[in-house]
Amino acid sequence: MVNNAIKFKMIGVDVAKLKLDIAFDDKHIITIDNQKDSFKQLLKLIADATQVCFVMETTGGYEKPISNFLLARGIAVCIVNAKRVRDYAKAIGQHAKNDRIDAQVIRLYAEMAQPKQLEQRSTEAHQLEVLMKRRDQLIKQRTMEKQHLEAANNANFIRSIKKLIKAFGNCQCSCRLDG
């Protein structure tokens, strides 16, 4: 785990599917592609990566490539709650909103809040997280099909739903759907 006692230079990152807006300080904000080659170029801009912490909001998974890339290199990363950042922006009177401003607000929030850094996880822990997420998706799908079955009144429709529910029960994945 990265030591929170170290005073890091916070770098705000506004994450989107295709790009990242990155605020280094009040005046230095850049935009890069959200892909590994760009992450490598980003690291060349940082004099001492052991003294910085990249801070970003959760974005439904779009933050994973950059956060995993940085963590794998021992660079501090924080993932913060988007609502807290929005509340902070309101509190400081920042009503304008665009990706560059959002990156700056994330950086300012992190400087104030000093959020907890993520721990680098093992490959096994990451794989387990992915499998558990998939299991949750399958359970939700099975539950929806069971609800559809309750409302079904056509024999073909009922047969189709029952086949799908049975397929969920015969899932050959490494996790059971007993949840």
Structural commentary:
This protein is an alpha/beta fold. It contains six helices and five strands. It has helices at residues 36-44, 64-72, 82-91, 99-113, 123-151, 155-169; strands at residues 9-15, 19-23, 29-33, 52-57, 76-80. It is elongated, with a radius of gyration of 21 Å. The two termini are 32 Å apart.
CATH architecture of the largest domain: 2-Layer Sandwich
Structural class: alpha/beta
The CATH class of the largest domain is Alpha Beta
The stretches of 5 or more residues where confidence is low (pLDDT under 50) are none
CATH superfamily of the largest domain: ATPase, nucleotide binding domain
N- and C-termini, Cα separation? 32 Å
**Which term fits the overall shape?**
elongated
Radius of gyration: 21 Å
The mean pLDDT is: 88
